Amino acid sequence: MKELQYLNKYFVKYKYHFLSGIVITIVSQIFSSFAPRLVSDSFAVVQKHFEAGNVDKIWVESRLWRNIMLILVTTLISGFLLFITRQTLIVMSRHIEFDLKNEVFRQYERLSQSFYKRNRTGDLMNRISEDVGKTRMYVGPAVMYSIQTLIRFIVVIAFMAGKSVELTIYTLLPLPLLSYAIFKLSTQINKRSTTFQQYLSKVSSFTQEVFSGVRVIKAYSLEKQQQDRMVELSLESKAKSMSLAKVQSLFGPLMIALIGASNLVVIYFGGMMYINNDPDIPNIGVIAEFILYVNMLTWPVASLGWVSSMVQEAEASQKRINEFLKIEPDIKNHNPEYSEISGSIEFKNVTFTYDDTGITALKKMSFKVDKGETLAILGKTGSGKSTVLSLVSRLYDVSSGEVLVDGTPIEKLNLNDLRDNVGTVPQDAFLFSDSIKNNIRFGKEDATEEEVIASAKLAAVHDNIAAFNLQYETILGERGITLSGGQKQRVSIARAAIRDPKVLLLDDCLSAVDTETEETILGNLLDFCKDKTTIIVSHRVSSAKNADRILILDGGTIIQQGTHNQLLNEEGYYRELYLKQLSEKELT
Ligand code: ADP
Ligand code: MG
């Protein structure tokens, strides 16, 4: 129960739902316990009539009618109150589920990149749907049934003991057995259901990956192979599900057997007491009353087993949720105050190692970009170019050395202000399955139509968009059209540009764009970036030509630097690349 204590704050938050639920349950249980009494009374009246022989028939009949009406009324009232109970307690659990889901989602957004590399999407999805769902079973049904059971026990046992303490004891004898058996069974069900859940999770992770990678699978014609793997996983999960069903199917028969046993106990001992003229059992109506009580107690006792397994599951789920709510993001905002960013960037002896791979991507790197300057970074794949950009927007913190923005160590700046002022166009131009307009506006939510169009023009993608039937309302991704690599990159540039950031980071974002369009965009950017600090990563010399300075990276260190003209006069990567790309251009 330790883990579930986390949820107590929600019971406090919804205390009115909770308390009124409890009060209404008490009243409802009292009303539902009248029926056995009335049945007992009816038996007694009929029995008396037979034994005496000459009791007023009309009176007996009217008494029976009275009892029937009372049973009807009390049952209706108790049923209605039960409905209200659900309205309070179950509705409370839905509110809590909503709050908890939001809490988990907020935490997801808080966590850093490295967290997402350690965890699979399938697992993250499960946490927010499955696990929160399980905890809801605890705050809703489990709590409701526990309250109902407790109150029903108190009420019914009080009613029973009022009639006969001895018979009450006999009646209750089989119940511990019942609840033990059901607890055992529930634990088994629980165990097997957990394994089954794990398999379900595997299956859904697998399918999810197949769906997202469907193009690759088709291109390599791996359908058969994936199908086989799917069949294998499904068979395993089917086996787990069957083993779960086996224990689950024992549940019903076991209940019926044990209720039957209790009934036999009541009939036997009650009958013996009646025959022996026990004053507690003046008529056989009391025996009927006890049988009804037993049946009223059985479901709650059975539900105890069920509830305990729900609680166990919720505990396991809440444990996972808690573990993960406790994770602190690697990248924290150390400064709640507003930070003004103007945009000069300096790397001082920066070394950076990726924790998970142990790869040291940058080694003692130092360079400086002044406000309004443009720096181009060139180098082979894996030389550390993207890593430099990640450090500027603080997606990671350096392992040693310092990144300074406007002369202040980057960790000392307000993280949100920093990121607000940095526009990044990542290497993989990720777009959401939403309209083009909203994708561009993602960079600035309150952007006007004109601003959207202006930044699309800047990124030289306006003409492409205008050619679509729905223009800026065209839906992208899963539910809509797929843009070409170059179009995606340009929409992604428009998204960064619309923020009008102080610092613009372009990570090889023109790689899929033809050279002519590249020229246009670079020309547009030249003007746009006049007062911005720009770092442009590229593998093309043409992108670097306009830069104030060019860095050549290899293996995480700067091997050459200078202006375009300086580097052209130096032997090395830049000159080779220039000559190579020059001849390529002439060939085409
Ligand atoms: P570039 O952008 O120049 O191609 P990167 O900066 O992406 O190079 O990568 C530099 C090195 O760091 C590479 O060896 C790469 O394998 C490694 N690396 C890049 N990103 C990650 C990451 N997220 N986690 C672990 N290692 C990474
Ligand atoms: Mg890269």
TrEMBL record:
Residues 21-313 form the ABC transmembrane type-1 domain. Residues 345-580 form the ABC transporter domain. The keyword Transmembrane applies. PANTHER family: ATP-BINDING CASSETTE SUB-FAMILY B, MULTIDRUG RESISTANCE-LIKE ATP-BINDING PROTEIN MDLA. Its main location: membrane. GO terms for molecular function: ABC-type transporter activity; ATP binding; ATP hydrolysis activity. GO terms for cellular component: plasma membrane. This is ABC transporter ATP-binding protein. It is a multi-pass membrane protein. It is found in: Cell membrane. It comes from the Bacteria. The keyword Nucleotide-binding applies. The chain crosses the membrane at residues 16-35, 64-84, 142-161, 167-183, 250-270, 290-311. CDD domains: ABC_6TM_TmrB_like. Keywords: ATP-binding, Cell membrane, Membrane, Nucleotide-binding, Transmembrane, Transmembrane helix, Transport.
